[in-house]
Design brief:
alpha+beta; Protein Transport Mog1p, Chain A; 2 domains; 8-stranded antiparallel beta sheet; 5-stranded mixed beta sheet; 17 strands; 32% helix; elongated; DUF4837 family protein; DUF4837
């Protein structure tokens, strides 16, 4: 009887586990535009200090854009209204008063793919403190989930990049809406035409000695962009593609395909012309080939917002794989 009881308990446990997996597989598909965040919290919290703390971080200006645009476009609703279509949102932030102080992140709670962050606090002051201390982690989870979603959409129809791989030893998953505007053994310019402007990717390489240390990296990268990248990119009427000089770019350390990279965000312009826009530059340290591979995405779209244009470019650049 003892062994029979253990056997029955084991079968029930396995059955429950299988049921859970089956339920996940039956979840409906999530919906929503890129970087749209559904915030679920009561109105009195949203209209007070707790809501202000959420807005301070999740609607903070996106780095590297010429005009302020929020990290996420937010929609708020109380928990009683959170049903039906709202449950299919891809990004959800729950903030609520509870009998514990806790922050957790779950995947595919109501739809898939989906990322849900839960912030629970005993008091309003606790909620403010939790949001302040955990916002970077939550934002990173949301950001990475949206990069994956953007890449998934790209994979539906891909551009042929075989020549890029043969010339530079790198492949990227680029939407078929892009085209090669210029190519050679030392430089690639890949472009997507917009209704009013374009999004662009450029690829070239420089010796490892061109970036000497972390302390001088931002100055070295600006010099490379202006003297090499700017010279290679053709600009009409004899202009020069360069780093905008009024504001210093943001620089971070990152990783592309397991290799160290400097990530630089800033604004470009064309000397003596009224042309400008945001850029995102990765200088990937490729020690096997004694080079930094430079991959950069930039937008020229004077009449539209740039956040989602640059986000698409970021998702493309992060798909880079080096031989």
């Amino acid at each position: 009887m003892k062994y029979l009881s253990i056997l029955i308990a084991t079968i029930l446990l396995i059955s429950c586990d299988n049921t859970t997996k089956q339920d996940k597989s039956l979840l409906s598909k999530s919906v929503g535009n890129i970087n749209v965040l559904q915030v679920v919290m009561e109105n009195d919290l949203w209209n007070g200090d707790v809501g202000e703390e959420v807005r301070t971080h999740f609607a903070a200006p996106t780095d590297g854009l010429p005009q302020d645009e929020p990290l996420f476009s937010m929609n708020q609703m109380p928990q009683a209204a959170f049903s039906g279509f709202a449950r299919k949102s891809r990004l959800i932030l729950f903030v609520s008063l509870a009998d514990e102080n806790r922050v957790s992140i779950a995947k595919d709670s109501y739809a898939k793919p989906q990322t849900v962050a839960y912030v629970k606090g005993k008091t309003k002051e606790d909620l403010v403190a939790l949001i302040k201390s955990k916002q970077a982690q939550i934002i990173n989870e949301f950001h990475e989930a949206e990069i994956e979603e953007r890449q998934r959409r790209t994979n539906v129809s891909l551009m042929d990049t075989d020549s890029l791989q043969s010339d530079f030893g790198v492949s990227m998953r680029i939407p078929s809406a892009y085209r090669i505007a210029k190519k050679g053994e030392d430089f690639y310019w890949i472009r997507k035409d917009l209704k009013d402007g374009s999004t662009n990717i450029i690829v070239y390489e420089v010796p490892l000695s061109m970036i000497t240390s972390d302390s001088t990296a931002v100055a070295d990268i600006i010099k490379i962009r202006d003297s090499i990248g700017g010279a290679l990119l053709p600009v009409e009427d004899g202009g020069q593609f360069q780093t905008e000089k009024a504001y210093a770019p943001y620089i971070f350390t990152s990783e592309i395909d397991g290799k160290f990279a400097y990530e630089t965000k800033g604004t470009w312009d064309v000397k003596d012309q009224f042309m400008a826009g945001p850029f995102l530059n990765y200088a990937i340290r490729d020690e096997e080939n004694n080079r930094y591979l430079i991959i950069e995405g930039f937008s020229y779209a004077p009449r539209v917002r740039k956040r989602d244009l640059q986000f698409e470019l970021e998702s493309i650049l992060k798909s880079a794989r080096l031989d």
